[in-house]
């Protein structure tokens, strides 16, 4: 009798157990689905960018390059002098005079004259573009369209992302435009942002975590820093415009130091952009650094104090070295966010079109995300392709910066 | 200030005076009074054990001896702690100097995540030591009975040692800054019996040179190592503040305590 009851009890709990397992499996499926959504989103994002970065284009030359050949020698193989002659014969006198006034054509290297001929004489125009997917799946259809609509144009498979694209300067022709100025602008601004926000952020975190006593004012400051981390970036842009560009325009333009860029002479410069991004990431850096400092076991501090060390000696020798990996991880994440920021820089006045490399903190600038934004709003299809290619460049740049920061951090940990 | 403390201490030691004394010491956590009315005279170059049930403020009293309690913002201390002829809670006394002269060893071994050498050298260096650091590390490790075990791996991390070795490293670290008193807060509670025994031997050795105050939960340990024992317990007036119940020679305390409460605790009837 008793054995029977026990067995019934066992089967009872067994039934309940299978219910518990089913419940657990349901949740597991929900979690897997959630992860899947994230993965799919990322894959779609990457595919969209890659889809726009490669594909067939219909190129229409204003002048057939073959017709420019001199005495049977193709244009690419002409000497510097012969190229100069071709250039003078095929552009208007006014345009040639402008080239002469910038740098005398006779003194320019052959490659540069060739580029001028490409841009102003042959002047290839992309008449139509197709995405990578269309190029791979609808080749026959594309060829029909070519014959009907662009009989004189040439069908080429084009990789919008190329070494030329990375090292070329900005241009109004999408075929020859590049992101060199934008990459340099991004590196300059982010460099200034790190230079400003890292020391200030870590110092503030040290103060708040190690020195500040529990008081109303300190709680108030802490709450505000937490809230600032969530303020939309465009508001930082407005702050940067009001403070750095307008109020401190004399300094951010370099006029106060006699270092102003003659073509700019207003505060819409790299240093304004860098400082704005620095302020944007400052709260995040402070919070992350505080968390890293908080995670250092208090037994280490007590050990330091117990030996008759001052607070600063203890912080410098034990708290900071142990918090550093965490501080760096948090800062890397914060700076990654800043690299991709567009809105505040557009408010501050990233230039829509610049061809000169930024030469210093007082130069006008554009950045990769700003450049991508400007290209995507253009109506011509080819600009959308180079926007996609520029997105790939931005992703690679971001990965490269993160990877180098992480390597640096890991090396430091090992040494320690 | 340093010379002042030094001079007074030398004089007191010569007179057979106390190494450190408390005078109506009371410690508050916010509004909660953790200990009250502590009057304890600690003799120099002796081991004084502080025993008592959990929550009676043993550690709080110990940390009051070198102003460690101040690291917790809400703690308030009343009364006096006389060391070297001065109240260490006087306004002009610098807590940093107090802690240099009254060192501390903690419950859990907490060596710095640095080399063994650096663990010893750091305290001396931050206190302005200018002499031969290798010599100092050597003599300190010999004193702490650790030299034979680590002489060939001074560059290894302090964390690579076993628990007992780590705790002896922490003791070595404390004596490297040449303190007068060493406070030990249950230094063996995280160690096995053999490692505990080695620390106890070390304590007996160090007691020839230093005043040691040890908080312990282990009655046998108190009986084995200490010269004097202070028994703390909660006051019976319902306000739950720790008080010094009885203080005397360890032998007397363990064989013939004057108070019933002490006897009950020592014989394991409560606690």
Quick recap of the structure?
The complex is a heterodimer of chains A (416) and B (271). Chain A has 416 residues and is mainly α.
What does this structure look like?
- The complex is a heterodimer of chains A (416) and B (271).
- In chain A, 69% of the residues lie in helices and 4% in strands.
- With 416 residues, chain A is mainly α.
- Chain A has a three-stranded antiparallel β-sheet with strand order 2-1-3.
- In chain A, helix 16 runs antiparallel to helix 17 (381-415).
- The N and C termini of chain A lie far apart (69 Å).
- The model of chain A has no long low-confidence stretch (mean pLDDT 87).
- By secondary structure, chain B is α/β, with parallel strands linked by helices.
- In chain B, strands 7-8-9-4-10-11 form a six-stranded mixed β-sheet, sandwiched between helices.
- In chain B, helix 5 (133-143) crosses helix 7 (163-176).
- The interface between A and B is medium-sized, with 19 and 25 residues.
């Amino acid at each position: 009798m008793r054995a029977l009851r026990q067995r019934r009890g066992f089967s009872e709990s067994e039934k309940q157990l299978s219910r518990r397992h089913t419940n657990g499996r349901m949740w597991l499926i929900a979690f897997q689905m959630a992860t899947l959504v994230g993965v799919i989103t990322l894959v779609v994002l990457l595919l969209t960018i890659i889809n726009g970065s490669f594909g067939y284009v219909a190129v229409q030359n204003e002048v057939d390059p073959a017709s420019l050949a001199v005495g049977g020698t193709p244009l690419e193989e002409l000497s510097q002098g012969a190229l100069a002659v071709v250039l003078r014969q095929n552009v208007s006198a006014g345009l040639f005079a402008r080239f002469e006034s910038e740098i005398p054509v006779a003194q320019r290297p052959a490659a540069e004259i060739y580029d001028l001929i490409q841009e102003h004489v042959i002047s290839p125009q992309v008449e139509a573009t197709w995405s990578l997917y269309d190029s791979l799946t609808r080749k026959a259809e594309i060829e029909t369209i070519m014959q009907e609509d662009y009989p004189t144009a040439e069908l080429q498979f084009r990789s919008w992302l190329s070494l030329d694209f990375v090292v070329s300067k900005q241009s109004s022709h999408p075929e020859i435009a590049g992101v060199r100025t934008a990459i340099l602008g991004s590196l300059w601004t982010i460099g200034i942002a790190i230079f400003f926000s890292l020391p200030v952020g870590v110092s503030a975190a040290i103060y708040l975590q190690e020195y500040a006593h529990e008081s109303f004012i300190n709680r108030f400051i802490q709450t505000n820093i937490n809230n600032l981390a969530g303020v939309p970036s465009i508001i930082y842009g407005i702050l940067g415009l009001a403070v750095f560009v307008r109020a401190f325009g004399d300094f951010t333009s370099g006029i106060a130091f006699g270092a102003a860029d003659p073509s700019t002479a207003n505060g819409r410069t790299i240093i304004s952009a860098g400082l704005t991004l620095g302020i944007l990431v400052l709260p995040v850096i402070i919070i992350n650094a505080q968390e890293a400092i908080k995670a250092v076991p208090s037994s280490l501090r007590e050990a330091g104090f117990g030996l008759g060390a001052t607070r600063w000696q203890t912080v410098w020798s034990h708290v900071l070295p142990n918090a550093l990996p965490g501080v760096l991880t948090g800062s890397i994440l914060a700076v990654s966010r800043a690299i991709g920021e567009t809105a505040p820089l557009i408010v501050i006045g990233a230039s829509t079109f610049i061809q000169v490399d930024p030469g210093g903190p007082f130069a006008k600038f554009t950045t990769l995300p700003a450049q991508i934004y400007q290209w995507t709003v253009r109506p011509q299809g080819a600009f959308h392709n180079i926007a996609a290619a520029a997105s790939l460049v931005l992703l690679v740049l971001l990965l490269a910066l993160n990877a180098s920061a992480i390597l640096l951090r890991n090396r430091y940990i090992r040494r320690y | 200030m340093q010379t002042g403390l030094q001079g007074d201490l030398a004089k007191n030691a010569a007179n057979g005076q106390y190494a450190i004394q408390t005078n109506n010491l009371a410690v508050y956590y916010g509004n909660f009074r953790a200990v009250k009315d502590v009057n304890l005279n600690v003799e120099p170059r002796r081991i004084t054990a502080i025993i008592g049930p959990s929550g009676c403020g043993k550690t709080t009293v110990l940390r009051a001896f070198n102003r460690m309690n101040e690291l917790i913002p809400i703690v308030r201390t009343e009364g006096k702690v006389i060391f070297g002829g001065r109240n260490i809670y006087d306004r002009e006394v610098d807590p940093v100097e107090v802690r240099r002269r009254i060192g501390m060893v903690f419950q859990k071994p907490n060596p710095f995540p640095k080399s063994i050498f650096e663990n010893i050298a750091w305290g001396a260096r931050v206190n302005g030591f200018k002499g031969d650091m290798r010599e100092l590390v050597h003599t300190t490790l010999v004193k702490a009975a650790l030299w034979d075990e680590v002489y060939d791996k001074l560059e290894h991390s302090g964390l690579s040692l076993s628990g007992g070795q780590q705790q002896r490293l922490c003791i070595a670290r404390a004596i490297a800054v040449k303190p007068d008193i060493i406070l030990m807060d249950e230094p063996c509670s995280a160690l096995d019996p053999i490692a505990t025994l080695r620390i106890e031997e070390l304590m007996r050795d160090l007691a020839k040179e230093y005043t040691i105050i040890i908080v312990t939960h282990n009655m046998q340990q108190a009986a084995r190592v200490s010269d004097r024992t202070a028994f703390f317990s909660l006051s019976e007036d319902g306000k739950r503040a720790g008080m010094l119940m009885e203080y005397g020679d360890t032998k007397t305390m363990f064989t013939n305590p004057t108070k019933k409460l002490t006897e009950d605790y020592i014989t394991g009837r409560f606690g």
